């Protein structure tokens, strides 16, 4: 069978020859780019901002920020000053110290980034939270991490259960006329009175950087800790994969509440001194195309759901905007359908480059590079210097074309360093002390391209957002009508998957459209809008194992009209 390919892009790319570079690459060489190689110390905020502010890039725009109300830009020099002010502010109004967890829970705005990098300058570990999270989700994450401070807005403040979080000593509020007390500090008021000089806290390369909570198929969300050293891979992939160059204007559409929004929203582009666009507000096809036109975006990193929504908005719309500056387009987060890749070529005359990675990998891991042919539907090939393989359940490497566990050889630079508070969980990801097992299944073809097949576990990817079924089930069970709940991802042509819940009701409750809506609202308000089941189906009883575990596999088989497989562990 002939495989469909889209030929490599001609031109001068940072990664000119994949095979040659892969055969002989040493990560230690990348370390030379950073202060660590000279002083033995490091700080992400220095490498992303101050270093450029002290160079020829001083007056180059670092950040273009735009939402419906604000349209601002900051040079690297201005970012240095604003983040110094923020660092001084955090220091003066709290007892935060190196290694303490500082959370960010607010919509995108310049202040979010001032605070994030100010916190990094102090040596704090930054924990970003998606703004759609509600009280239950917030509590779990702040409690587990023993967060000491948070920055938020007056609108979101009521969702933070302050009285149940004894470790949370300080709340920085970004709003107008904030009423301060022993706990609440007015961020904007103090920002402009704080000094714009700050002595950076110099760190070791293994010191903490960010703590991203993410979902698995069981248990509460897990805190994935990354070290400062992640910058080595983030920097190098910004070069090879994003193909960033001095004149580029880069836009990553991800929210900083997710790993893509930190690692590739700001770290990777700023490590290379690239002008970066941040757009606030909600997704709309017009606003997105307009952003590309307004800023002259050259490199654009987004996600399959967004591309599918743009596709759905029609090709005529594309012609209303000048998108001629675009030179490189990339995607992450879910399988990128070949159809979408073909659409990209047709309407933008650009290949959409799929990239695969996850919160735990800390940076791009399997990618398509401009200088390499694309096989639509394939995630591409491993980043040079990283070994990826398909292994069986015992950790044996499988030959090409056999489906198995997608695994990465331990020790890549941006590998997660800890699951917060849970060393046993951390260890459970590794097999034979050699392989990190991703939870995805895939195969590799004879030419070394990797093809995604699905999740091995029950994790749901909806609109590119990772949702743990357990978290949703737990919330459902708190609803007075719900006796049992099982949650699965149901395939959806636009969102990849949507969340479907099977629910058995308590005595005295009857299925109804009203009850469905009430339960949906309950999850929306208690957890997050994106975690609320789009569909709810009532059942008298749910399939369970004898030990009482809901068998999601059976629910999925019901849903998809598939054989239910081995039912020997099911209760009668
Ligand atoms: C899925 C997002 C197919 C995968 C950066 C992975 C993908 C999970 C792709 C991680 C891709 C990510 N093709 N599936 N190119 N990229 N995934 O932690 O199942 O939010 O395990 O990280 O997203 O999601 P996470």
UniProtKB/TrEMBL annotation:
InterPro entries: AMP-bd_C (IPR025110), AMP-bd_C_sf (IPR045851), AMP-binding_CS (IPR020845), AMP-dep_synth/lig_dom (IPR000873), ANL_N_sf (IPR042099). Its EC number is 6.2.1.1. One of its GO terms (biological process) is acetyl-CoA biosynthetic process. Pfam families: AMP-binding, AMP-binding_C. GO terms for cellular component: cytosol. GO terms for molecular function: acetate-CoA ligase activity; ATP binding. Signal peptide: none annotated. Residues 51-418 form the AMP-dependent synthetase/ligase domain. Residues 471-549 form the AMP-binding enzyme C-terminal domain. Keywords: Acetylation, ATP-binding, Ligase, Nucleotide-binding. The keyword Cell division does not apply. It comes from the Bacteria. Belongs to the ATP-dependent AMP-binding enzyme family. This is acetate--CoA ligase. It comes from Planococcus koreensis.
